[in-house]
């Protein structure tokens, strides 16, 4: 297993945002984390990244990293594409990209930058312009490219398709697929249930901080359990699945 999370708990004062969650992510796979607003998805990713304090243990490539700083986790091979992208609008696109590599001491940064520009021609053309010139979809691409500049083996993605046009949504999912084919393991938080289940092999549903359901996505797509686990019933997920 690339990532093993055991009995993870995140609390903010009295709010138990993540409650006793365990999961195992296989190398080179895509896993989807689904759940309603406030279910604890972001808290889970932030805890794995080490930007939120958490209880429980996290093993990455066999090493216990739960006490490590987030910087050390980045060096070990975990990167986060945060909720809301968090692009620095007053820096140039290139400066934003270099932020993703700020901890690296190897000589590969320049060639990785070139690789990102190959992958994202829209960013290449405007590398010396400010982040603020980019559209929402382009900012999301920049956030992904910035995370890739850390050369991760595990990429945590927090709702990368949120608020984007259908064209960009498709582009994001194509990118997720091709990064995965190149060997990257991806833990994907998504509101776009249908696309996420198509992309991932394994799905996890969080409900009120707890893991309500976990199964192979093929099985999840067919069964009614997803709808039940998601919101305790309701039509919202049915619509998402059949949209
Ligand atoms: N910094 C914080 N301080 C206090 N409570 C918080 C904080 N961050 C999150 N929470 C609460 O923790 C719970 C889980 O929030 P979290 O953001 O992890 O959920 P989420 O599944 O990512 O939601 P969304 O779909 O809206 O992004 C919610 O009840 C939220 O209000
Ligand atoms: Mg969230």
TrEMBL record:
Residues 3-233 form the ABC transporter domain. Belongs to the ABC transporter superfamily. Coiled coil: none annotated. The keyword Oxidoreductase does not apply. Involved in beta-(1-->2)glucan export. Transmembrane domains (TMD) form a pore in the inner membrane and the ATP-binding domain (NBD) is responsible for energy generation. GO terms for molecular function: ATP binding; ATP hydrolysis activity; branched-chain amino acid transmembrane transporter activity. It comes from Bradyrhizobium erythrophlei. SUPFAM superfamilies: P-loop containing nucleoside triphosphate hydrolases. It comes from the Bacteria. Keywords: Amino-acid transport, ATP-binding, Nucleotide-binding, Transport. GO terms for biological process: L-amino acid transport. This is Amino acid/amide ABC transporter ATP-binding protein 2, HAAT family. The lineage of its organism: Bacteria, Pseudomonadati, Pseudomonadota, Alphaproteobacteria, Hyphomicrobiales.
